[in-house]
Write a structure and sequence with these properties.
Helices cover 36% and strands 18% of the residues. It has twelve helices and nine strands.
């Protein structure tokens, strides 16, 4: 059978002088391409910083470090590098107002966002594929609560268990609005206010009234604790918080910040602890430059906050400190400058800790070294139950959220009767430093 020739299809030409829409698009694209070719090339390509080639083989940690421009190598002690260079600017924040109420509202919005960011970074660094669970209460009982908290109270407890890097970690958000002070709580606040040193640069504590029973208060806090699987990676703990009081008799109001950041190592690696403290000192010096020849008495200085941390995380029954410290501050008057500082404390959580994970997370360890870690975790739990103000306050409530209060407890601990570290060993060296804190930066 002869092949059939397909019919010839004719394309109709447009009228003379008329251009079709596809032709216009093609001409526009050609003109744009020509314009781009005439532009000079950029002087440097834009690319995120990568971890140092000398870092650990923990690929997941290195991947988590890269987006924020961190390196897994030893932390520099130079003061020429800005701490805020390590993190992206908070482009979503508007400029905070100067009133205590405006600062509070700005800060609690920051905490909501930062909890989500922090969790994403830790999950990426952990690399196990496990995710933080979510336990919301109050206005945050449903997932939609983050978008519309309004004036209501609530909280979100997020927990990761059984990870490769993080054996147990928790990141807890609490926001309380429009509570009423009891007589005991008002007396405690007023007493601490009287004992707090005034800030420098002419800033007072911001209170021009006596705190009393019936005054209205609001509070917001974000805390994190990361208990590590590898005994050569220290436990990391930090929190930031704000407390606002409004007078019930007039329009007076005031607010204070509190918080801190510290390490609890199980084996003392001086390089890691010194780098962590150098990060904190640079941050403090940038926000509150120390006076030349100053003695560190300014409560906003790194020296003062480091001493406060050593004093707070102390077990008097053992005559030793819980860890190698960091910074701790309380009753810091809430101003625009202190808001910027406290934000940077929170932003510095992963930049100060993940480089240690990258260096030590892949190190091999023995069963004996793991058991020593669990013994030291026992001290961690001792402090929480016997001395920590937040735990004691939480458990003293009429109907405490026990799981939420105790979420910072280590996953596994050990108590050996009268355990004495081997003389001359690394365990003894750690205990010596815990009994006699060092100046690390």
């Amino acid at each position: 059978m002869a092949a059939t020739t397909p019919p010839l299809r004719l394309r109709r030409r447009p009228p003379v002088g008329a251009a079709s829409l596809p032709n216009l698009r093609a001409i526009s694209l050609l003109l744009l391409l020509a314009l781009l070719l005439l532009l000079p090339p950029p002087s440097e390509p834009f690319a995120p910083a990568r971890p140092s080639s000398s870092s650990s083989s923990f690929s997941s940690v290195r991947s988590a470090l890269a987006p924020v421009g961190l390196r897994a190598s030893s932390a520099s002690t130079s003061s020429s590098t800005s701490v805020t260079d390590d993190v992206d600017e908070d482009v979503g924040d508007s400029e905070p107002g100067s009133s205590p109420e405006e600062i509070f509202d700005n800060f609690d919005s920051f905490l909501l966002r930062h909890q989500t960011e922090m969790i994403s970074e830790v999950e990426a660094a952990d690399g196990s594929g496990r995710s933080f669970s979510r336990d919301g209460w109050g206005v945050f009982a449903d997932d939609a609560g983050e978008e519309a908290s309004g004036r209501a109270s609530g909280g979100i407890t997020r927990v990761l268990q059984g990870g490769d890097v993080v054996e147990k970690g928790a990141c807890s958000l609490t926001i309380i609005r429009d509570g009423v002070l009891t007589a005991d709580r008002a007396a405690t606040i007023q007493g601490r206010r009287g004992g707090a040193a005034d800030a420098a640069d002419g800033e007072s504590d911001g209170i021009d009234f006596v705190v009393k029973e019936g005054d209205v208060y609001s509070a917001a806090a974000l805390s994190v604790v990361l208990h590590t699987r590898n005994p050569y990676v220290p436990t990391f703990r930090s929190d930031v918080r704000i407390f606002l009081v409004k007078s019930s008799s007039d329009d007076g109001s005031a607010a204070w910040f509190g918080g801190g950041s510290d390490l609890t190592p199980y084996y003392l690696i001086d390089e890691d602890v010194a780098g962590f403290h150098a990060h904190l000192k640079r941050m403090c010096d940038e926000h509150f430059p120390p006076e030349e020849g100053g003695d560190g008495s300014d409560p906003r200085s790194y020296r003062a906050m480091k001493r406060a941390c050593d004093d707070y995380f102390y077990l008097p029954a053992r005559s030793e400190h819980r860890g190698t410290g960091g910074i701790f501050f309380d009753d810091l008057p809430a101003t625009s400058s202190s808001l910027a500082f406290v934000r940077d404390v929170a932003r510095g959580w992963t930049p100060s800790w993940l480089p240690i994970v990258a260096r030590r997370g892949g190190r091999e360890y023995t069963e004996e070294e793991k058991h020593w870690q669990m013994l030291r975790r026992g001290r961690y739990l001792e402090f929480n139950l016997l001395y920590d103000r937040g735990v004691k306050f939480g458990l003293a409530n009429a109907n405490p959220r026990v799981e939420g209060v105790m979420v910072s407890a280590p996953p596994r601990i050990a108590f050996d009767y009268n355990h004495v570290p081997e003389e001359g060993g690394e365990e003894e060296r750690l205990v010596e430093v815990l009994k006699n804190p060092k100046d690390w930066a």
